[in-house]
């Protein structure tokens, strides 16, 4: 599904990613862990197509297609979804109107008609119930005045509505209390299938107790320095990141 | 011949032509003298510092169009809010079009200024109200001197006028260049409610300059909602001066939607002559290319316990320029005044500019007055967020601009106007929105 070869990326001429290699197949859950400043969020943004980031070397293949030249919305139309670490507030646009627009624009790009209003409402009801989202919440301005937990839950709600092929969850666990974490994780688990894949970017092991990864990668200074199974996450939780840094040096 | 000289000599001809015994003969003579002394305003004047009329005054305008032209309703239907039942006062090249209009004298007067100026039964209203609140500046005076045609609306007390009134001016390009000077008088008596929609529309590329003056009198507990739809083509310019005198407990609102036109100047003056008055001034401006829009507002709080709410949003693209000059004057007696003013702008292009200037003159000590101006760009992180959800950049920008102007639209009471404005904005931005805000 996703194949990243020797990816180098920089922002404002500052190199951040320095040769990432990663293969994600359908049905897999990958966790990318690493200390602050290692390039985790940058990797997420580069895959999603943020313009400020420049790919200087290497390539990102999505379903064997190089997506370097594609705009963020075109990547979304091909099934990439990024759950933001800091979702942006958009006053004046309700959650419902926003998601309607997103779905219908995606359908338009796929040559489909707008989703009938009735189906849309049904889908919204279904997904909001799954994530225990109050109906009143849906008519509020997008992310405006939302608590940290509400913002993250809203991200997963959008993911549930859009049903992406590749979901990247950037620090989705930060700002969540334990109940919200469980709801969000349950939501993600319900959406998992053999046809889609999830990349979880996190600093801590906490979320991985609920969404169990097939692979864990450790990112350090713009490179994946260690990969392993879910037990690697436990090891990191116990020992911190310093031993990895040591290992890299030696 | 310069336009000024042409106008002054035209006035002499005009005076010989119309009834010298007209009740406003003296008013006209006095007005032309003011114009003759002052001439057109220049950038040297503080109120015109950021708006130059040079580019619109250079044409050889016809002051009195000679040719009449009919237009078919179907050809211009789109310029009406045609989805609703309404009264219509329509002018073609400054002349009344009975064919396109629907006036009334049943219980209320929705008719013509020319009739009101000439018929004895209206004389008292004309004497009491005509040119009583329009300022004596040179452009309003010029309009007064030539005032002949426009809308005359008189609503007696206790009338809820259910049908909105549409005042529409078409210009057909029959003249190489046309100067129009419509004059409207609107008197709304106690407890009455009226809704008015005004639009100026040129149908060709010939230059048009409109110097319009509207006087509105809202008596006790009257409600007046006025909507100005300014979406003219780029060879048409508009100088609109609207004066509103409010008596106690009246509520007046003016929404100004400016998307078109070469140069648009809106002078909007509210005078609060009574207690517990509410005044609302809202505007959405979305322009580009070399368009210029200048909003010049005044709210004069004269008596205690009144409110005013001003909210103007502007989006400027290309080399367009904008001005917001908002003056709030609070007299010493006007205690417990609540006056709010906001002017928020987005500049989309590096070449676009806005000059915004709040002016608060407060002589009372127990008031709440606030003002805020912002100038910014579209939020890049919001754009990326929306794109990452599959919304293309162009649509994402449009959605952000919609959202930005949303709270101005939210106070529009006629849903069909809201829909129309939404459509004009979508059109202007070249997108198809999946919903109405």
TrEMBL record, chain A:
<dbReference type="InterPro" id="IPR003439">
    <property type="entry name" value="ABC_transporter-like_ATP-bd"/>
</dbReference>
<keyword id="KW-0067">ATP-binding</keyword>
<dbReference type="GO" id="GO:0005524">
    <property type="term" value="F:ATP binding"/>
</dbReference>
<dbReference type="GO" id="GO:0016887">
    <property type="term" value="F:ATP hydrolysis activity"/>
</dbReference>
<dbReference type="InterPro" id="IPR027417">
    <property type="entry name" value="P-loop_NTPase"/>
</dbReference>
<feature type="domain" description="ABC transporter">
    <location>
        <begin position="2"/>
        <end position="246"/>
    </location>
</feature>
<keyword id="KW-0547">Nucleotide-binding</keyword>
<comment type="similarity">
    <text>Belongs to the ABC transporter superfamily. Ycf16 family.</text>
</comment>
<dbReference type="InterPro" id="IPR003593">
    <property type="entry name" value="AAA+_ATPase"/>
</dbReference>
<protein>
    <submittedName>
        <fullName>ABC transporter ATP-binding protein</fullName>
    </submittedName>
</protein>
<dbReference type="Pfam" id="PF00005">
    <property type="entry name" value="ABC_tran"/>
</dbReference>
<dbReference type="InterPro" id="IPR010230">
    <property type="entry name" value="FeS-cluster_ATPase_SufC"/>
</dbReference>
UniProtKB/TrEMBL annotation, chain B:
<feature type="domain" description="SUF system FeS cluster assembly SufBD N-terminal">
    <location>
        <begin position="15"/>
        <end position="167"/>
    </location>
</feature>
<feature type="domain" description="SUF system FeS cluster assembly SufBD core">
    <location>
        <begin position="174"/>
        <end position="404"/>
    </location>
</feature>
<dbReference type="InterPro" id="IPR011542">
    <property type="entry name" value="SUF_FeS_clus_asmbl_SufD"/>
</dbReference>
<dbReference type="InterPro" id="IPR037284">
    <property type="entry name" value="SUF_FeS_clus_asmbl_SufBD_sf"/>
</dbReference>
<dbReference type="GO" id="GO:0016226">
    <property type="term" value="P:iron-sulfur cluster assembly"/>
</dbReference>
<comment type="similarity">
    <text>Belongs to the iron-sulfur cluster assembly SufBD family.</text>
</comment>
<protein>
    <submittedName>
        <fullName>Fe-S cluster assembly protein SufD</fullName>
    </submittedName>
</protein>
<dbReference type="InterPro" id="IPR045595">
    <property type="entry name" value="SufBD_N"/>
</dbReference>
<dbReference type="Pfam" id="PF01458">
    <property type="entry name" value="SUFBD_core"/>
</dbReference>
<dbReference type="InterPro" id="IPR055346">
    <property type="entry name" value="Fe-S_cluster_assembly_SufBD"/>
</dbReference>
<dbReference type="Pfam" id="PF19295">
    <property type="entry name" value="SufBD_N"/>
</dbReference>
<dbReference type="InterPro" id="IPR000825">
    <property type="entry name" value="SUF_FeS_clus_asmbl_SufBD_core"/>
</dbReference>
């Amino acid at each position: 599904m996703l194949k990243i070869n020797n990816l180098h990326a920089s922002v404002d001429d500052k190199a951040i990613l320095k040769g990432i290699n990663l293969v994600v197949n359908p049905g897999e859950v990958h966790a990318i862990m690493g200390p602050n400043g290692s390039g985790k969020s940058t990797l997420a943004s580069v895959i999603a197509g943020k313009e400020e980031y420049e790919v200087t070397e290497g390539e990102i293949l999505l379903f064997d297609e190089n997506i370097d030249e594609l705009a963020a919305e075109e990547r979304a139309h091909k099934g990439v979804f990024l759950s933001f670490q800091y979702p942006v507030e958009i006053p004046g646009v309700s959650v419902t109107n926003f998601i309607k627009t997103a779905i219908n624009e995606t359908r338009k790009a796929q040559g489909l008609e707008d989703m009938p209003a009735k189906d849309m409402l049904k889908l919204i009801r279904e997904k909001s119930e799954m994530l225990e989202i109050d109906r009143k919440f849906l008519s509020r301005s997008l992310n405006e005045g939302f608590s940290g937990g509400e913002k993250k839950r809203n991200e997963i709600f959008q993911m549930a509505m859009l049903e992406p092929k590749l979901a990247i969850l950037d620090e989705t666990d930060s700002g969540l209390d334990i109940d919200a974490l469980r709801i969000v994780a349950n939501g993600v688990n319900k959406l998992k299938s053999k046809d889609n894949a999830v990349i979880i970017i996190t600093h801590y092991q906490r979320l991985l107790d609920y969404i169990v990864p097939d692979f864990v990668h450790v990112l350090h200074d713009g490179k994946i320095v260690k990969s392993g199974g879910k037990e690697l996450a436990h090891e990191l939780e116990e020992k911190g990141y310093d031993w990895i840094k040591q290992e890299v040096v030696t | 011949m310069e336009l000024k000289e042409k106008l002054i000599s035209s006035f002499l001809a005009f005076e010989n032509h119309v009834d010298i015994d007209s009740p406003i003969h003296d008013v006209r003579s006095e007005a032309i003298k003011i114009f003759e002394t002052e001439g057109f305003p220049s950038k040297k004047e503080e109120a015109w510092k950021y708006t130059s009329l040079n580019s619109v005054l250079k044409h050889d305008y016809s002051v009195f169009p000679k040719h009449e032209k009919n237009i078919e309703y179907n050809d211009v239907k789109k310029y009406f809010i045609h989805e609703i039942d309404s009264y219509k006062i329509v002018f073609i090249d400054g002349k009344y079009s009975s064919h396109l209009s629907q006036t009334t004298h049943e219980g209320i007067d929705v008719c013509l200024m020319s009739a009101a100026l000439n018929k004895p039964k209206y004389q008292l209203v004309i004497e009491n109200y005509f040119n009583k609140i329009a300022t004596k500046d040179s452009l309003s005076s010029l309009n007064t001197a030539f005032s002949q045609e426009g809308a005359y609306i008189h609503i007696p007390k206790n009338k809820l006028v259910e049908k909105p009134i549409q005042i529409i001016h078409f210009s057909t390009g029959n003249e190489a260049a046309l100067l129009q000077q419509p004059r409207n008088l609107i008197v709304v008596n106690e407890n009455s409610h009226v809704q008015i929609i005004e639009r100026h529309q040129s149908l060709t590329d010939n230059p048009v300059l409109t110097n319009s003056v509207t006087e509105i009198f809202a008596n006790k507990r009257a409600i007046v909602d006025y909507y100005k739809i300014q979406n003219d083509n780029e060879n048409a310019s508009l100088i609109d001066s609207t004066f509103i005198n409010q008596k106690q407990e009246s509520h007046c609102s003016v929404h100004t939607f400016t998307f078109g036109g070469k140069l648009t100047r809106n002078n909007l003056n509210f005078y609060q002559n009574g207690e517990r008055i509410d005044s609302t001034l809202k505007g959405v401006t979305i322009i580009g290319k070399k368009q210029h829009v200048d909003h010049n507002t005044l709210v004069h709080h004269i008596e205690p316990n009144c409110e005013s709410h001003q909210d103007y949003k502007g989006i400027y693209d290309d080399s367009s320029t904008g001005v917001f000059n908002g003056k709030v004057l609070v007299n010493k007696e006007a205690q417990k005044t609540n006056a709010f003013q906001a002017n928020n702008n987005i500049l989309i292009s590096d070449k676009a500019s806005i000059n915004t200037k709040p002016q608060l003159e407060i002589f009372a000590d127990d008031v709440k007055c606030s003002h805020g101006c912002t100038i910014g760009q579209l939020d890049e992180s919001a754009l990326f967020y929306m794109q990452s959800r599959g919304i293309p950049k162009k649509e994402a920008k449009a959605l952000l601009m919609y959202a930005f102007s949303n709270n101005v639209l939210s106070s529009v009471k006629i849903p069909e106007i809201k829909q129309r404005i939404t459509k004009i904005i979508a059109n202007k931005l070249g997108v198809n929105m999946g919903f109405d805000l």
